[in-house]
Amino acid sequence: MTNCQFPCRVCGQKAHGNHFGVYSCRACAAFFRRTATSKWVHKKCRNGHEEKTCICKTCRLKKCLEAGMRTEKFQYNRDAILLAETSITPSMSYFVGRPEFLLFCDPEIPTYSRFNPKIIIDVNHLISEAARLLDLGNSTPYQAENQLKKLALGFNLIKLDTENVKFYGKIGQTEFMDIIEYYFVKVSKWIMHFDGFQKLEKTVQMKILQAIWHVWSKIHKCSSTAMYRKSHHGARKMHKIIRNTVMDREKAKMDLSWMSDYPEEYVIRYMFSHNCQDFEIMEAIENLDPSDVELTFMFAQLCFEYAGKRFQGEILKITDGFQQILSNDLHDYYVRDQRRPRYFGRLNELLKVNNLVQKSIWQSRSNSELGRVFDVVKIGYSHPEMFVDSGFY
């Protein structure tokens, strides 16, 4: 009400509207709002003008109250910008189940680990199956011009069928184990298409295989997701291909109670922190749109580079030799097949993607260290060396 015909019942000036139950001007309304709960409520007039004028705050406040203004008429929470309701983040001692002065002590003490024993996952059957596949070699001999193209033929056998994809309804312990088994076996079959790898001693083969399977699976998930997005225009950003099956991060039900005693939302956040670069990797692959031969080179170069840096020594010499063979084969592919002698820019883009994957692995190591300190994941393995940098350990 902006054009009120009544005078202010406090000062007699033109009223602006009904404020706190009384027709008053804005000045008196603002004054009452400021002083109604202040010290002036309890003070007395020092000037002795109580019956004549309201020149002091005490007298003016008294007139406001006598006119009928009430603090019950105050309205709160009407600010244009309201502070979001926040909750105090639970303390680490609350999660770990130990007082703060014991947080960084040995987690094997009875206050925690005795009541929350680790779940040991036995992967001996996987190791035995991989050993059998390595002894068997290629079930079907393939003929190709060079080693890179021979690896590409092996890669085509496990290429994503974009026309027949299924969705995960939930992911729990069964699905978790199935994902590990799927990728370890697939990498065992794929790597045997490389003649240089077949010539290695069995112990060296197994050591390299146990190191590279999860690196291979990481770039496979990203490249398959990029391929899926390209062929399905309705694909959502939260869709990701895992084991040639689509997982919707927002809709799929995650059962992680078997692997951790922490609240599920925090465990999910911890698990996804190991894939912090995945969206960038998938976007880069989607924009690059590599051929099967280029994609095979990316897979092999990334895996051999990782294994060499991890083990050093003799294995580094072996993997450097493998990379040299693949580089020569890629050169022939560009020059002879693609008739593209100036391919340096293209090769640089391929290696940028691989560097992103390596960066993602390096950045996740600090999260894994913290996870082990605070027992975020209560999983152990019969062969822990197989899960270093995997995000599962």
Automatic annotation (TrEMBL):
Listed InterPro entries: C.elegans_Orphan_NR (IPR051152), HNF4-like_DBD (IPR049636), NHR-like_dom_sf (IPR035500), Nucl_hrmn_rcpt_lig-bd (IPR000536), Znf_hrmn_rcpt (IPR001628), Znf_NHR/GATA (IPR013088)
Localization terms from the record: Nucleus
Domain Nuclear receptor: 5-76
Keywords, alphabetical: DNA-binding, Metal-binding, Nucleus, Receptor, Transcription, Transcription regulation, Zinc, Zinc-finger
Organism ancestry: Eukaryota, Metazoa, Ecdysozoa, Nematoda, Chromadorea
GO MF annotation list: DNA-binding transcription factor activity; RNA polymerase II cis-regulatory region sequence-specific DNA binding; zinc ion binding
Domain NR LBD: from-to ranges: 147-390
UniProt family annotation: Belongs to the nuclear hormone receptor family.
Gene Ontology CC: nucleus
Protein name as catalogued: Uncharacterized protein
